[in-house]
């Protein structure tokens, strides 16, 4: 007598997750850290005059990698290229991990997808920057694009703990509007800061001389919205603490980062822009943007979570 076939067949184990798992969290953080790090390595290329250390796409007509005879600048520039590969691999792994969530968590899927596209676009822009001998406008765009990718990676981190349920404001409407205005002021600060650096002494190569706006005037133009940003953040922080708003800790963090940035900016203006301080300023700007993204994201909370305290109180 033949054995009967099983009534049900066990479902084939799926490798990719259908929800936010530990693997998704780990690679989301690794991707974010890599995006911040490449801001630092890109700054190192520029601040050590290594921008033209390697040709593109090959360092030499016969070699992808630099040779010892090319000197330290070629290795610094090539190291940044290798970091770009790390950033791309981590972004691609994260995109693959959220593949099964592309319908249930479309927000995470699109954020991961944008980062992958952005990394590819940045590779092209970086190559063009070398081909065009560090054109000031293109180099500035390259940095702003990197900051944008940091913001997108930070948005992924901020939204990981959400379930996809409808969200409602967790703060007063005027507070939310003021926060968005503050974020726009930050964008202005970044654009003016990049413009100031693009016209400064750190062009990326000693033979590339910027012929643009007066750096002294640009420094003042950059500082004015920076102080406005600080004043608005201070106001939001005080109000959030008085009213015990859920984003008060993030606002305190944002305020602290801004204080550090202001201190570094003042130091730079009084010491003729030492390269190390400029590099630190660039990296902290990326962290500032990431923190602002966290603040804006947490202006809303999922309705179920918002209603939970009220249900408990009435029980």
Task: Give a description of the structure.
It is built from nine helices and two strands, in the order ααααβααααβα. With 315 residues, the chain is mainly α. The chain has two domains: 16-164; 165-307, no CATH class. The chain has a two-stranded antiparallel ribbon with strand order 1-2. The protein is flat and about 60 Å long. The protein starts with 21 loop residues before the first helix and ends with a helix. Residues 1-13 and 305-315 have low confidence and may be disordered.
Topology record:
Layout lengths: L21 H26 L24 H26 L8 H26 L4 H24 L7 E3 L3 H26 L16 H28 L5 H23 L4 H23 L2 E3 H12 L1
Antiparallel strand pairs: 1-2
Helix pairs in contact: 1-2, 1-4, 1-8, 2-3, 3-4, 4-5, 4-8, 5-6, 5-8, 6-7, 7-8
Organism: Microbacterium mangrovi
GO molecular function, one term: oxidoreductase activity
Keywords: Cell membrane, Disulfide bond, Heme biosynthesis, Iron, Membrane, Metal-binding, Oxidoreductase, Transmembrane, Transmembrane helix
Which terms would index this structure?
single chain, 315 residues, mainly alpha, 2 domains, two-stranded antiparallel sheet, 2 strands, flat, disordered N terminus, disordered C terminus
Instruction: Tell me the Rg in angstroms.
Output: 23 Å
Say how many strands there are: 2
How much strand content do the residues show?
under 5%
Percent range for helical residues? Answer: 55-70%
Low-confidence stretches: 1-13, 305-315
- Gap between N and C termini, in Å? 62 Å
Structural class: mainly alpha
Keywords: Cell membrane, Disulfide bond, Heme biosynthesis, Iron, Membrane, Metal-binding, Oxidoreductase, Transmembrane, Transmembrane helix
Protein name: Cytochrome oxidase assembly protein
InterPro entries: COX15/CtaA_fam, COX15/CtaA_HemeA_synthase
Pfam family, one: COX15-CtaA
